[in-house]
Amino acid sequence: MSERRADGSAGDADYGTIGTGYADYRRPDPRIAEVISRALGDARTVVNVGAGAGSYESEALRVTAVEPSASMRAQRPAHLPPAVDAVAERLPFADGEFDAAMTTFSVHQWSDLGAGLREMRRVARGPVVVLTCDPALVRDFWLYEYAPLVLDTEARRYPAVRDVTEALGGTVAVQPVPIPADCTDGFNEAYYARPERLLDPGARQACSAWSFVDAALAEQYTDRLRRDLVSGAWDEHHGALRGQPRFNGSLVLIRALPA
């Protein structure tokens, strides 16, 4: 059963604390949105589980958002409908109520992955679409040289892709999602070509894994990155990334159709 914090957050991250300003840094990227849109196919009604501040909710669809955190629900823009206060593991909807179900950057927050995915499968007649990160690839990112415990945390919290596909069942496809150099959705890898952005405390706070690292240690990580940017050491080792239009990192999209 999910444990819920003071603001309703489910899982291990307290979005009542770290969610402030989330919508300023985690703005949906249109190219990633297009990948999600293609995966949803011709669905007209969609449930968005762990919807947060409304990222990747298409206004062309009838989207029902589910979000347990009050602070995240409060950041939803006025043009989007209010989110339902519920958790993935217990969706308050009838079997097959929606054409499709989606979730983005959320499954690692759930206390019971299998239960949440089975609920998404239960309420969706068609595709279930999951945007997540492959934990087997998380540590391949250059940030691991500077903030190893942050990416160790990410790798620990993200479920294995195999666990997601097995829980969903049916016909499943796993698609790597290239990250554009000017990505507007500020997860860690979105700054692969813009390392200076990770010196911004707000940018780091919008990536929940940073909240699991002691503040003093996180500052040490940031100081080392700052020194290497000033000295040119980062550019010596990774500068080619600044001119690379896309980055193939750990971001994946999983699409499951019913059996």
Features:
alpha/beta, Rossmann fold, globular, methyltransferase activity, methyltransferase, Methyltransf_11, two-stranded antiparallel sheet, 8 strands, Methyltransferase domain-containing protein, 6-stranded mixed sheet
What report would you give on this structure?
The structure is a single chain. The chain has 259 residues and is an alpha/beta fold. It has one domain: 3-Layer(aba) Sandwich (Rossmann fold), CATH 3.40.50. 31% of the residues lie in helices and 15% in strands. Strand 3, helix 5 (113-123) and strand 4 (128-133) form a beta-alpha-beta unit. The longest helix has 17 residues, at 215-231. It is globular. It starts with 14 loop residues before the first helix and ends with a strand.
As laid out across the biggest beta sheet, the strand order is: 2-1-3-4-8-5
Largest sheet: 6 strands, mixed
Strand percent estimate: 5-15%
Report the CATH architecture: 3-Layer(aba) Sandwich
Mean of pLDDT:
92
User: In CATH, what is the homologous superfamily?
Assistant: Vaccinia Virus protein VP39
Number of strands: 8
Q: What is the CATH top level name?
A: Alpha Beta
Protein structure class: alpha/beta
Cα gyration radius (Å): 18 Å
Shape: globular
Give the terminus-to-terminus CA distance: 27 Å
Report the helical percentage.
25-40%
